[in-house]
Design a protein that fits this description.
Length: 314
């Protein structure tokens, strides 16, 4: 029997962990795992340290079961899509299984199912279910689909290939609610999000011969728009549609004045080492980190831009 299946079989109470500020892949993979454990009549909890989950994820099965308090008495934890211990948002004391696809994953679990070539964590789970003869029901298929949809940026990313679509085809045949998910995940916005996007695009700066798009968003900007942090990512990603832009950098000031930095690239520049350099992590095309020191947006911009400029070779 597979080691992970064995651990699950012998566990009394399993807690699934989606990373802080969860995305569709972390939620989708935890949701699919949740269904699987319910199928097995296991006692299971789903933990995420972040209180507010974006409304676009409401199409993910069991999303209403997420708890922000860590369950007492769990004897097995499974983290999904978490690249480092810090992303768990909690100190885990029991046996931990780490299932992820980030190349920067630090293998912090006792068991690590980390495949950096996978498009999403849900793709790893899909294979895990198939290899272990697990029946994928409609809810699981929907959840697995969400991870693929989200991490492939609506099937537009460079890592998408025929295998991705073959997987999607199978998930749809298993009942995945793909139309609902496409609409909720890719095609819904709040007025606040659109207002923030407009302000960000208006203030976008192009640096280094227009190869770098820069966005600085103050805490005041966020408060004024009423947008949630994730809403700032739309403008960031769209700036890469510009002909010369190869890297997009977003610096967003938080209420404690720390700065959340998000990096996106067209794939020709690896974002992960830059993020690692500042204590963060991620993928080639998307990575992030937090600057905790007391530093202005302008100072942070210069510091990071200098590093990016060294990496960009014309
Ligand atoms: Mn992911």
């Amino acid at each position: 029997m597979n080691e992970i299946v064995e651990k699950i079989e012998s566990a009394g109470h399993v807690v699934l962990i989606s990373h802080v500020h969860p995305d569709g892949d972390s939620l989708g993979s935890a949701s699919a795992m949740y269904s699987y454990l319910l199928q097995k009549h296991k006692k299971v909890s789903w933990f995420c340290a972040t209180k507010v989950i974006h409304q676009r994820f409401s199409c993910i099965p069991w999303i209403e079961d997420i708890k922000t308090s860590y369950p007492l008495g769990a004897d097995l934890a499974i983290s999904l899509d978490c690249a480092s211990k810090e992303r768990l948002g909690v100190e885990v004391r029991c046996t931990l299984i780490n299932i992820d696809h980030h190349p920067t994953n630090t293998s912090f679990g006792l068991f690590n199912l980390v495949q950096s070539t996978a498009l999403s964590t849900t793709e790893i789970l899909y294979r895990f279910f198939k290899e272990n003869g697990v029946k994928i029901n409609k809810k699981m298929a929907t959840a697995l689909y969400v991870g693929l949809l989200e991490d492939s940026d609506g099937f537009l990313s460079q890592s998408v290939d025929g295998t991705t679509f073959a997987t999607v085809q199978e998930l749809i045949s298993l009942g995945a609610e793909f139309k609902l998910c496409n609409k909720k995940i890719m095609r819904s916005a709040s007025l606040a999000a659109l207002r923030l996007k407009a302000a960000m695009l208006k203030n976008m700066e192009l640096e280094h011969s227009a190869t770098v798009a820069f966005f600085g968003v103050s805490y005041e900007d966020m408060k004024q728009s009423g947008a949630v942090p994730e809403d700032a990512e739309g403008a960031l990603e769209e700036s890469l549609f510009l002909p010369h832009v190869r890297v997009a950098l977003l610096l967003r000031q938080r209420s404690d004045l720390s700065i959340k930095c998000s990096l996106r690239s067209d794939g020709n520049l690896d974002c992960a080492p830059i993020a690692l350099n500042f204590g963060g992590g991620g993928h080639v095309t998307r990575a992030g980190f937090v600057l905790k020191e007391n530093i202005s947006l302008q100072e942070a911009k210069e510091k990071i831009l200098n590093l990016i400029k060294k990496e960009i070779v014309f």
